Amino acid sequence: MQKIIPFLWFDKEARAAAEFYTAVFKDAKIISTRLLEGTPSGTVEIVVIELFGQTYQLMSAGPLFKFNESISFVVNCEDQEEVDYYWRRLSEGGEEGQCGWLKDKYGVSWQVVPSQMGELMGGSPEQRARVTRAFLKMKKFDIAALQRAAGAA
After folding, report:
1. Three-class SS string for 6-50?
2. Helix (H, G, I), strand (E, B) or coil at 152
């Protein structure tokens, strides 16, 4: 059993969000759904999903809490095609942010990041400054532009 499981509280969209996330991520599935009757909010639905071997619990339990950017999920992408895919799919109906951040249509924050970012930011202070200046102008990351900024003299 997984020791720590992220738990996401939705107003009434847990099942729809589970179906969305399992459609976006290729190695994903819905593990279980259950209704809890007689709760203070009426009916609560719990949906358990798995994304790339990581378990998440989603709950529909009313509008008590809202998502914000203080919690986000990072999607490490191997190439531009993967960045483009996750950016397009996760931002559908949502909101594009700066520097690889977006909110999906349920208000959950995601960071779609090239896996090379650590290497691009790991050089000299001047290289880090160039890469930082480049990505501060971006919404979706452009790996080639970041690589050019890292290599610029």
Report:
1. CEEEECCCHHHHHHHHHHHCCCEEEEEEEEEEEECCEEEEEEEEE
2. coil
User: How crowded is residue 37: how many other Cβ atoms within 10 Å of its Cβ?
Assistant: 7
Handedness of CA 94, 95, 100, 106 (dihedral sign): negative
Q: Say if residue 95 is in the same domain as residue 133.
A: yes
Span 73-91, pLDDT tens digits: 999 999 999 999 999 999 9
Count the neighbouring beta carbons within 10 Å of the beta carbon of residue 78.
Answer: 11
Q: Looking at residue 131, which CATH number applies to its domain?
A: 3.10.180.10
Q: Cα–Cα distance between 150 and 114 in angstroms, integer? A: 14
User: What does pTM read for this prediction?
Assistant: 0.92
Integer Cα distance of 149 and 134 in angstroms: 7
Half-sphere exposure of 39 (CA within 13 A, CB side): 13
Helix, strand or coil for residue 119?
Answer: helix
